[in-house]
Amino acid sequence: MAKIRYFSKSTDDKLIADEKKINNADFINIGNPISVYRDGVEQTLSSMYLKITTLVDFLTISLKSLQSNKRFTIAYYGCGNGSNARQILRLVNSINNKISLRVVYIDVSSELLYEADRRSNFMKLNSNIDFDWELVQIDLSDASSISKFTDNNVGNFNFSFSVKCFHNTFIKINRDIARMISLCSSKDSVFLNQFYGHNLYSSFKQLIKLIIGKRYSNSIYLDRVLANLYPKYNGFDLQYRVTSMSMSEVFKSNHFKRLSIESYYLKK
Description:
By secondary structure, the chain is of the alpha/beta class. About 35% of the residues lie in helices and about 20% in strands. The protein has 8 helices and 8 strands; from the N terminus they run βααβαβαβαβαβααββ. An 8-stranded mixed sheet has the order 1-4-3-2-5-6-8-7, with helices on both faces.
């Protein structure tokens, strides 16, 4: 089992004997019970909430900027059990199987990081893909933790991404997070931010929480505007945005498919 690197000062005193941290809702809130993410099925390319053809295009762009003597490093912010990163590994390997690959799993929950580790071990044993990985626990709402993580990873990531983390939890892309993503990204690397939208009623509820000073889980229009401005001011160019809406899913429970937004940014 891989060791977790901790960058969250606020939870350092909650370590227990086996290096796990207390994952009660009092300390960590990730939108759903941890078991939802821990026990989720392993994604396949067909079940990912991403447009695969667009993803392949931007992975190819990232690979072209890679020096021959370097490995390709993928950072997954809010990784959960990590299955999306492992599918991206498969895509990168299908484009170029001559390079070594590395995944940096980043999450607030050590329980989810250990699950990502377990599944990565299984994939390593059952595939011919040359890759390794790192487990990072960080509280992205804590500025000092963000700063410490950034200092340890300047220019390390060739492709970084988030699926639902930055707009469908309490964490939004602010100045500190945009600076972190930018400084940790290498030149000509790509950052993908994916999240799903909500109807007017849900957006109004989030706005009311903002007005009365409460944390709110899903984004409002202002969050999405700022999430485009902050990366721009930190060296990213928005290259492509795609919005997907499946009308057949509107009245079903799977809200992920109602309005999915993917934004791709290139580090200048």
